[in-house]
Amino acid sequence: MAKEISFASLCAREPDEKRFNKTHQLPIYAASSFIFEDFAEGEAIFTGQEPGHVYSRFGNPTIDAVAEKIAQMETWGVNLEAKALLTSSGMSAISTLFFGLVQPGDKILTHHGLYGGTTALMDQVFKPLQIEAVPIDLNDLHLINEYLQKDKKIRLVYFETPTNPTLHCVDIAAISQIARDRGVISIVDNTFCTPAIQQPLVLGADFVIHSTTKYLNGHGSAIGGAIVTCHASLLEEKVLPMLKLTGGNSNAFDAWNLHNGLKTLSLRMERQSQNAKEIAKRLENHAKVSLVNHLSLTSHPSHELAKKQMRDFGGIISFELKEGLEAAKRFMGKLEFCTISPTLGDVDTLILYPAGMSHMSVPREIRVANGITDGLVRINVGIENVEDIWRDVEQAIG
Ligand SMILES: *Cc1c(COP(=O)(O)O)cnc(C)c1O
To answer: How many whole angstroms separate alpha carbon 315 and alpha carbon 72?
Structure first.
């Protein structure tokens, strides 16, 4: 063939693929589209009569393989079958799901202290579309029941457990049950725990969303999100069409990066939880620290609930320096080993000052009422040797 066609045609042609057996690692299918052998195959795949790929915004072998693995993780150990979609970010997972499941006039029952981007999404994107978020105390199960009973416009209950950075938990099984009894869909943001520690679908939730950017990827190498559910038809009929139309899909390279992280998820979550537990214990005994938030501590108000619905206590700690703002600033300035960064879930220890960084735009009274005081510091505890982390934290507290 090469000798028969012009040089320009040879340049433009796809090469013949010499692939005889499967690669050991998942390949990156960096392809926007897929080819059909003939008209019949094209028609069968396009109409869904035959399985196959068409265009990577709709699906791609790398993306689909990783999505399926996350679905298996969220339902591991039980007789449930989940399906998942990967999205371009955690925000895209949330917005795609909302666009798929609610209409103007509908309401979303939720709580205070959500991820900042999620609250802003509700206020700035969905509220102008007449889709209102109603934040209440989701620890009050009677109140949830009351709201769902009196307001039939509420279609979704959306929550995070534990919350950032104070780690307050709500009861996934109880809330999901109340929602199901009223025909309302429950959605849990499981970013902080991952299925290694908490499986909301197993506890009865209808949907899980993730920012895979955090623990699932674990190495800070890609922004990404996931939507997971056991309601395959709802996903295929309502959510997937919305993902295709709004274009919030993942891409093969980021999905592959995410998969590299998934391989060590179990090890990482175990080590990060173990290190965090040790650091939290030492902080609680420190004279200059007035409060420590970690779910392993019996002093944490959500300790019992965490024990009930989580397999471990996770790698996030927040703690309050007695001397407030000035002490927090001094602490951040003296860090040498730990890194100051706004993200979480990476393998190295990252420290954030919520009042002056992630929660800066939240009015002070609301911030403080939610436990984000001027002296509060958050630690994403990494997988390093715990003594190295502690030495730095201790010297920085001074
Ligand atoms: C980071 C984060 C998000 C948003 O995810 P992106 O990947 O940054 O879009 C949503 N929820 C929680 C709990 C997060 O930590």
So the answer is: 23
pLDDT tens across 50-75, in order?
A: 999 999 999 999 999 999 999 999 99
* Alpha carbon distance 211, 304 (integer Å): 26
Which residues lie closer than 8 Å to 52 by C-beta, 6 or more apart?
34, 41, 44, 45
Residue showing tokens 């309401």? 107
Tens digit of each residue's pLDDT (9 = 90 or more) over 77-113: 999 999 999 999 999 999 999 999 999 999 999 999 9
Q: Answer whether 199 contacts ligand 1 (Cβ < 6 A).
A: no
CB 85 within 8 A of CB 243: yes
State in Å: Cα 18 to ligand 1 middle.
40
CB-based contact 349:381 (threshold 8 Å) = yes
Residues for the chain: how many in total?
398
For the four alpha carbons of 348, 90, 354 and 158, in that order, the dihedral sign comes to negative
Which protein residue has the closest C-alpha to ligand 1 atom 11?
115
Q: Could you tell me if 145 and 178 are in contact, meaning their C-beta atoms sit under 8 angstroms apart?
A: yes
CA atoms within 13 A on the CB side of 205: 28
- The string of pLDDT tens digits covering residues 235-260 is 999 999 999 999 999 999 999 999 99
The burial class, CB within 10 Å (0-12 / 13-18 / 19+), for 316 is buried
Catalytic residue chosen out of the listed positions 83, 106, 155, 189: 189
Left if phi > 0, otherwise alpha if psi is -120 to 50, otherwise beta: which for 131?
beta
Quick check: CB of 61 below 6 Å from ligand 1? no
3-state SS, residue 398: coil
For residue 79, how many other CB atoms are within 10 A of its CB? 5
Going by C-alpha positions, the residue among 150, 106, 151 that lies closest to residue 131 is: 106
Contact between residue 34 and residue 53 where contact means Cβ atoms under 8 Å apart: yes
Q: Which two tokens stand for residue 187?
A: 């959605």
Q: How far apart are CA 49 and CA 57, in angstroms?
A: 19
* Whole-number CA gyration radius for the chain: 23
